[in-house]
Amino acid sequence: xxxxxxxxxxxxxxxxxxxxxxxxxxxxxxxxxxxxxxxxxxxxxxxxxxxxxxxxxxxxxxxxxxxxxxxxxxxxxxxxxxxxxxxxxxxxxxxxxxxxxxxxxxxxxxxxxxxxxxxxxxxxxxxxxxxxxxxxxxxxxxxxxxxxxxxxxxxxxxxxxxxxxxxxxxxxxxxxxxxxxxxxxxxxxxxxxxxxxxxxxxxxxxxxxxxxxxxxxxxxxxxxxxxxxxxxxxxxxxxxxxxxxxxxxxxxxxxxxxxxxxxxxxxxxxxxxxxxxxxxxxxxxxxxxxxxxxxxxxxxxxxxxxxxxxxxxxxxxxxxxxxxxxxxxxxxxxxxxxxxxxxxxxxxxxxxxxxxxxxxxxxxxxxxxxxxxxxxxxxxxxxxxxxxxxxxxxxxxxxxxxxxxxxxxxxxxxxxxxxxxxxxxxxxxxxxxxxxxxxxxxxxxxx
Length: 447
What we know:
Shape: globular
CATH topology of the largest domain: Preprotein translocase SecY subunit
Number of domains: 2
Structural class: mainly alpha
Radius of gyration: 25 Å
Largest sheet: 3 strands, antiparallel
Number of helices: 19
CATH class of the largest domain: Mainly Alpha
């Protein structure tokens, strides 16, 4: 009887010297990142900081810090050297993508191939440094002037300079680790670092869940609820995998061209249009906007901000409705930036390609825009459901948000996407060396 879990692909991965080396390098670099998440920033009272974050987490403004803390793998609440995490780099990358769509010089640079990519990447790095300096400086000011807490041992210019240098250097080092994983390891380095930070929160979530089950005399969660949670988790992961991988295939036919005695073209292929083009970007944008009033209200004692924040509370209908609409809007917004049907139609026309039944040029662009608009709606609705599903789990099953967050939201989308991408890269190495990969062929009995 065949085993339910086939570990032979994993064993085979360590039989290939190059793949084995890449896997070990990736593991070691991720271990360095996790160690750095526990090295504290100088001049901070850890006890007072923990008390502060406990208080902040109970306010609506704490939701934004919860997102930052998730991306930093818990380093933010301990204010370690990696407290900013990779968020400044992500923000800089998103800003560059937005600017590329509106600034012709950057758009031209993006089309210059490898050389253009290197220049764009360099600009993104400079942007990361600038954002890190700004964020770390305001964090230092915030810690110095938070009323009722003596977090900073020796406040002043010296502490601010040390904090800026420490946190900025930490972010640059994380960015370097990501590039090393990308070059010498396996998988997307930046994405793996984010996923490692999210996965590192699983033991804490299990600990909270354990505290709700034991002791049995004071149990706050029933066995039937646990079964429901397990079924829902499997269903969420399965659906995320399906939508993440889902594409709409647009058939493309290339006309035959006779040059001398040679015949070129005549091949048939397809354009894969992703149903979920934006991924987690739409959720990040929507969360940043909807949590902004609450974050300001926690820092600025203004009655107007306070009233607005009280009406935008997680779990309330107004919050959920605005959050869902923002996600749908940013799904379309981001798709419009990264997908240009006019450029795609022009490239197809230059190379003699056409969609059967559709004239080349403007009609092709209109058809691609028509299809993309409709499949984006399906992807946007799915992302919206996944984003608000943790709130539903938290409200109905009465579990902490850290536990509920593994049933949807940004964390599950990133983790599943990164794992799929990494497995695909390992799969390609295995198939190149004539080993059977993780994805089994449907054809049996082939000799």
